[in-house]
Amino acid sequence: MLQTSGSSQSTPLLQLKDVHMQFGRLAALSNIDLTVRKGEIYSIIGPNGAGKTVMMNCINGLYRPQQGDIYFKGSRINHLRPYHRANLGISRTFQKIELFGGMSVMDNIRLGRHIYLRSGVLSGSFFLGKAKREEIETRRIIEEEIIDLLEIQHIRDKTVGMLPYGEQKRVELGRALAMDPELLILDEPLAGLNLEEVEDMVRFIMDVNQEERWRVTCILVEHDMGVVMDISDRVYVMSFGRQITEGTPAEVQQDPEVIKAYLGEEDIYATRK
Amino acid sequence: MSRVWLPCGHYHQSYAKDQGWWQTPVIKLKMLLLLGIVLLGVPLLLPGYWVGVCTIIGYTAMGALGVQLLIGYTELITLGHGAFIAVGAYTSTMLVLHFPWPEVLVDLGLAYPLSIVVAGLFAGIWSVIFGLPTIRVKGFYFILTTIAAQFITVDLILTQYVSKIGGRAQSIKIPSDAAKIGPWTMSGDVKPYLLMAVLLILMVMVTANLLRTKRGRAWMAIRDNDVAASTMGINVFYHKLLAFFVAGAMAGVAGAFWVSNTSAMSPEHFPWFLSLKLVGVILIGGIGSIHGAILGAAFWVLVGEFLQMGVLPLADYWPNVLMSFTFLKTAFFGLIICAFLNFEPHGLAYRWWQIKNYFNLWPFSY
């Protein structure tokens, strides 16, 4: 939010420096520089195929950029694998829902707590002291903090694959939150939702960003401009793998380059006439 | 809300209770009854031959449980699980027959139980070696490497080298007093059966517990979506190897058990068909279910038995039938698997679940 401006403390949490990523001869990302500060909602927008998801995959470790550095909390993370980055506190949701379809909602969210569980195979196989205590504590945290926040009590024992799309999106957010992340990457969390679900989802995002319990820094990749302009602290606009501009929502909206990227160039239409 | 049907008006008041295994007295009673039937009813009431059949069911189920873990829960399709059973069986045989056990251990009857543990560990490690290709290969290519496990282990190492230890060409004779646990020598029908029952119960317990804790959930996550699993902080490769270790260890224990139920150990006990059979068992029983492994094993062995009983009287009229029975049986099982894939793709476990649900609400179905 502009008014509350949680980003006033300007510690950088995530930094991309001169990141370059190429598939064959297609440059998906070129010369990307950006800094996400602690506590803010940082939105990334751009037309389809601009390279937003590729950038998220680079931050998350699913892709490795050919060039450039990615810093998280001050240390370079280029060489780390995705599961290692998850341990550092980077969590994400996906554009195309990537839940564990055959498992219950509860188990999906429990998987988000995987990095906090310490019991080994032996205590696990006999459900001895430590494993048992840990499982019950995990259950408590999930029930009281995540399921309660996301209002999904009624579906917690259902198999995820059977749920409607909107609820799956919510479960995916729950799973990402269960990791207690410092940085939450939301890749199109609102795509395909109806108006009511969009309102709910935006409320959840603002909750986890602002509530004392969470204080999660969010990177939001989204096409719904109304929402992006309303809730973002800063907006990064890209097109064809390049930065167009960066700034507060108000600044971005005025930028002629942005308007050009979204609406096309006027003279093209002029020549067609 | 619980996964279990509670009587009207009853609620759990702690998470511990809600996650318990046996949540209501009725369930507890049912489970104790089942335990009673398995441990007392079968050995006391059934004739010796059928106790032997139950032992085979259990042996098959122990193997199938490991395959279930790999195929049903981690989606690492394996067509070479028989190899790890063979590794367990041979490790145990070699240890019992050739290892210089201290006199005390032999007198106390601990040699064989210890060999079961070692066989489990060794088969687990052996299985991890063949799981290593998972870091690069997936799907069909990986299935091929598991087939390689079968042929390298059984057809090359066991047949060509291990079987020749002790001078005999093919099978290794196991003296009837070799498998001794405490004061009991594993002979006759009942004692191996009881050993099988205890091992199977332990294995089911371990599997079920693993599946509701960290490691088991990680396996299922890998099965459903390995990319998402890695972003959840799961080290996919490590967990795949762990699945191989646990499944291999189970196979090893099953193989070590086989020592007590046979008088000669031969590579012919672990043909490639055994590996295929275990996959067939879980296809019939239901993929992704512990019940499935046991129900499938029971189905497979019992159908085989009944088939044999049905065929014997025919021998008077059609003498060839006994000669070709092995092939007929295999063909019949092939048909059964096809039928199951078409008409009951979720297997017997799903049917069992439906029956249970029906009776939970009976006689008022809604």
List the helices and strands and how they pair.
The complex is a heterodimer of chains A (273) and B (366).
Chain A (H helix, E strand, L loop, with lengths): L11 E12 L2 E12 L3 E5 L6 H9 L6 E6 L2 E2 L5 H7 L1 E4 L11 H8 L8 H6 L2 H22 L14 H14 L4 E5 L7 H16 L6 E5 L3 H7 L2 E6 L2 E6 L1 H6 L1 H8 L2 H7 L1
Parallel strand pairs in A: 3-8, 3-9, 6-7, 7-8
Antiparallel strand pairs in A: 1-2, 1-4, 4-5, 9-10
Helix pairs in contact in A: 3-6, 5-6
Chain B lengths: L14 H4 L6 H21 L2 H27 L6 H18 L4 H6 L2 H21 L7 H23 L10 E2 L6 E2 L2 E2 L4 H22 L2 H11 L1 H6 L4 H23 L5 E2 L6 H14 L4 H22 L8 H4 L1 H19 L3 H15 L5
Helix pairs in contact in B: 3-8, 3-11, 3-12, 3-13, 4-6, 4-7, 4-11, 6-11, 8-9, 8-11, 9-11, 12-13, 12-16, 13-16
What does this protein look like?
The complex is a heterodimer of chains A (273) and B (366). Chain A has 273 residues and is of the alpha/beta class. In chain A, 40% of the residues lie in helices and 23% in strands. Chain A has eleven helices and ten strands. Chain A has helices at residues 52-60, 82-88, 105-112, 121-126, 129-150, 165-178, 195-210, 225-231, 249-254, 256-263, 266-272; strands spanning 12-23, 26-37, 41-45, 67-72, 75-76, 90-93, 183-187, 217-221, 234-239, 242-247. In chain A, the strands form two sheets. A six-stranded mixed beta sheet of chain A has the order 6-7-8-3-9-10, with helices on both faces. A four-stranded antiparallel beta sheet of chain A has the order 2-1-4-5, covered by helices on one side. Helices cover 70% and strands 2% of the residues of chain B. Chain B is built from 16 helices and four strands. In chain B, the strands form two sheets. A two-stranded antiparallel ribbon of chain B has the order 1-4. The two termini of chain B are 18 Å apart. The A-B interface holds A 60-62, 81-83, 86-87, 91-92, 94, 98-103, 107, 110-112, 114-115, 117, 119, 121, 124-127, 131-132, 134-136, 139-140, 143, 153-154, 156-157, 175, 179 and B 1-3, 15-16, 18-19, 205-206, 209-210, 212-218, 220-221, 223-225, 227-236, 242, 246, 288.
